[in-house]
Design brief:
Immunoglobulin-like; mainly beta; about 140 residues; elongated; about 10% helix
Length: about 140
């Protein structure tokens, strides 16, 4: 069975801690991107929310079965602006996906539309189910 990710309990703990303490993209730690992931047919689809991010600020890298997604959302006001409320996270957003060995990391595709980054990760040919023919010395004698 092909798998998308191995479980990383410390990453989830970090995410909950950041959320509880109110860290944003302006903190020392990168902010987390909300994600959905599912398998459809022979590929996994991962969707990450990145509202207000420009496509040229998104960076995807694969190294040793780890897909790293980074994006940056900058402030859309100048330095001399008197900001009254700044609740929207800014800065660098980062997420790592641990890919299983049965996925084809060489053929990952990504699209960005309406604030959502969609990544498609195909299942490797070697991991797809296949039919194995059973041979024998004399198949006719068995069927007779």
């Amino acid at each position: 069975m092909a798998t998308l990710m191995r479980t990383d309990p410390f990453r989830e703990f970090d995410r909950l801690t950041q959320q509880f303490l109110g860290y944003t993209g302006t903190s020392a730690r990168p902010a987390v991107m909300p994600m959905d992931a599912y398998r459809t047919g022979d590929e996994y689809v991962v969707r990450l929310d990145l509202p207000g991010v420009t496509p040229d600020s998104i960076d995807l890298d694969v190294e040793r079965n780890v897909l790293t997604v980074k994006a940056e959302r900058k402030a859309d006001y100048g330095e001399d602006t008197d900001v009254q409320v700044a609740e929207r996270p800014r800065g660098v957003f980062s997420r790592e996906l641990f890919l299983g060995d049965t996925l084809d990391a060489d053929n990952i595709k990504a699209d960005y539309d309406a604030g959502v980054l969609t990544i498609r990760i195909p299942v490797a040919e070697k991991a797809k189910p296949r039919k194995i023919e059973v041979g024998g010395a004399d198949r006719k004698k068995i069927n007779a």
